[in-house]
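Recall from the previous lesson that a structure prediction takes nothing but the amino acid sequence as input. Here we apply that procedure to DUF4114 domain-containing protein from Candidatus Nitrosacidococcus tergens. The sequence below is the only information supplied.
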Amino acid sequence: MHNYKKSFFLSVAGLTTTLLASQAMADPISSPPCPVGYDGNVTCINTVSSDGQNLQDKLNSITTSSTGIDVYTDQINPSALWSIGSTGSSENALMFEIAGNAGLNTFGIYDPTNKDNKLQLFSGSASDAYSTTLKNIGGGSYKATQFDSSGDVLGQQSANFGTNNLFGYYLEGPGGTFYSDPSLNPNGNAQMVAYEGGHGVSLNLGAGSSKFLANEYILAWEDMAYGTGDNDFNDFAVMVESVDPSGPSVPEPHVLGLFGLGLLLMSITPKLNPRRKLSTIAA
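The prediction returns the following tokens.
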């Protein structure tokens, strides 16, 4: 068999496998259903919350600009691991909690190499407008200083995560401990969705309207294992700033399909242009 024929058949097989895999990835999560057209990289959010408030409505209620946040199309990926910017400091503000476990859920960061090594940023008693300054003090050490809504210091805690300047976020409560890295959650499901600032969005978090900046992110959490609760992702919402999301991401299905198609076209090019092949041999 000529090499181009062999390459052609291998590419067809690869493209078929890729497209089938892409189709499997593109199937929306069945419960709750995603809107038609969203693929497996989008976390499905139940638009009907048990308490009558859903994430989209809550974000709309604090948006003061004509441009808003779409809870589906504005999800960022990857959002599993994070790092603090060159200032070495990140401000964190508790936006809202709409959950029966609001007085019990705690939030913080964890060591990617040991998920049980945590640093708490907000306790269960924290409420809206509480804030925490997270400081990277070097050598993998972090210090958190918690403030109440009046700006008074509540306390400080510290932890050491190693030297890679990476961490993940966690939410812990009666429903379990959940992580920004979905692979650490039950059945590998996402328990957090993240939204990046910028794009002309302005928000009012209680101190008047201000820009939702490009280095700021909203992290919205579901505090029950995905599929066992209401999946509304408004149980705990926090804004974090001066951080950068990273690793690991899932390739988009259409990108995989285009890669396979490229291999197929490359394999059939000699077949479509035999004169070029003959002239090359003659040369």
